[in-house]
Amino acid sequence: MSDLNQIIKDAEALLQTSEQQTGEGFKAAKAKFEATLKNAKEEVIRLEEAVVTRTKDAARATDEYVKDNPWQSAGVAAGVGLLIGLLIGRK
């Protein structure tokens, strides 16, 4: 996501520095590129919103599960902690 944001920033900078160029072909290409860049920005925003929504949903589901099954959750957490401890101890 950060790479895509950087590409968008670089493309905007390129568009700003190329304003001195003239010619109908260049103007048409620039307009098309600006439209593509606008769509890319909108897609990044949409993806970020989707990720945030899914993350919040997962957090809510986890919270509900832990509240409904506290002992099972504690057992799973202990098992994961034990496994991580064993893996760290092996090295």
From TrEMBL:
Coiled-coil regions listed: 1-50
Membrane topology listed for this record: Single-pass membrane protein
Location within or outside the cell: Cell inner membrane
Q: Which residues cross the membrane?
A: 71-89
Task: Kindly report the protein's main subcellular placement as a broad class.
Answer: membrane
| Highest rank taxon of the organism | Bacteria
Domain DUF883, chain residue ranges per copy: 1-49, 62-91
Q: Does the keyword Cell inner membrane apply?
A: yes
Q: Which GO terms describe its cellular component?
A: plasma membrane
InterPro entries listed in its UniProt record: DUF883_C, DUF883_N, YqjD/ElaB
Listed A to Z, the keywords are: Cell inner membrane, Cell membrane, Coiled coil, Membrane, Transmembrane, Transmembrane helix
A molecular function (GO) term: ribosome binding
Membership in a protein family = Belongs to the ElaB/YgaM/YqjD family.
Entry-linked PANTHER family:
INNER MEMBRANE PROTEIN (PTHR35893:SF3), INNER MEMBRANE PROTEIN-RELATED (PTHR35893)
- Report the protein name in the record: Membrane-anchored ribosome-binding protein, inhibits growth in stationary phase, ElaB/YqjD/DUF883 family
- Which species is the source of this protein? Undibacterium terreum
